[in-house]
Design a protein that fits this description.
This protein is an alpha/beta fold. The protein is built from 8 helices and 9 strands.
């Protein structure tokens, strides 16, 4: 059994506004193991993005405790690449922000870009690339600072269906290849099943853990191949019923 890298212990978060209090999460308890890919699904507006903000330390719980061992990298819904910077300079951006822009770090980042098919596009600008290539560049940018945990906030939602399938394959390959821990939030049940080792289902707001499932695809990690397995439709039916109970 691998070590826990992230743990939520009875976490509650309440927002205070002029109109009163809003509880976004209530008694959240779960953990993520090192090297695990966890998908989190739940009804729209249930607080999935809030959960990632708590995991990253951007929000502090009103009560309970979030324990994190290591650093986080955050990948957003859109690639958010700066159009006036080349792909290479976009990849280097977090190194500049964190004052880690050393020759060694840049070399590692460029090595990742070359390993995952971006070597010929480093001097291109984001508008010259397809949506899938830009999302791949965004992931390499996130990996440039060598985070221990990747937080993926619906990173495929802005893509068309075919591109989405291809980028899922790319992202899965990169995360597995770099042996990273990943937490994905998504509205797409099929996406969660195709990518994750484990799926956590949240209730409507205030978010609580309703169900947890270890998926039974064995050693098969490739999203497209998982979609071809018999158990894929079974898991879809189970999760659909839980979300719509």
């Amino acid at each position: 059994m691998k070590n826990e890298i992230l743990r939520f212990e009875d976490v509650t978060l309440t927002y205070h506004t002029r109109r009163g209090e809003t509880t976004a999460a209530d008694g959240l308890t779960f953990s993520v193991r090192e090297g695990e890919f966890v998908a989190i699904i739940g009804p729209s507006g249930c607080g999935k993005t809030t959960l990632l903000s708590l995991a990253a330390g951007l929000l502090v719980p009103s009560s309970g405790k979030v324990t994190r061992h290591g650093s986080c990298g955050y990948m957003l819904q859109k690639d958010e690449l700066f159009p006036w910077r080349t792909i290479e300079k976009n990849i280097f951006l977090p190194l500049e922000i964190k004052r880690q822009n050393t020759p060694e770090r840049r070399e590692k980042a460029l090595g990742l870009a070359g390993k995952y098919g971006l070597a010929d596009f480093l001097q291109s600008y984001p508008p010259q690339l397809s949506g899938g290539m830009r999302q791949r560049a965004a992931l390499i940018r996130t990996l440039a600072t060598e985070p221990d945990i990747l937080l993926l906030d619906e990173p495929f939602s802005a893509l068309d269906y075919q591109t989405r399938l291809n980028v899922c394959e790319d992202v899965s390959s990169i995360i597995l290849g770099e042996k990273k821990t990943a937490i994905l939030i998504t509205h797409d049940i099929s996406e969660a099943i195709s990518l994750a080792d484990r799926i956590i289902v949240l209730t409507k707001r205030p978010a609580r853990v309703a169900f947890e499932h270890e998926l039974d695809f064995g050693l098969e990690k490739r999203p497209i191949k998982r979609r071809e397995q018999r158990q894929f439709s079974r898991w879809f039916e189970v999760l659909w019923k839980e979300l719509n109970a």
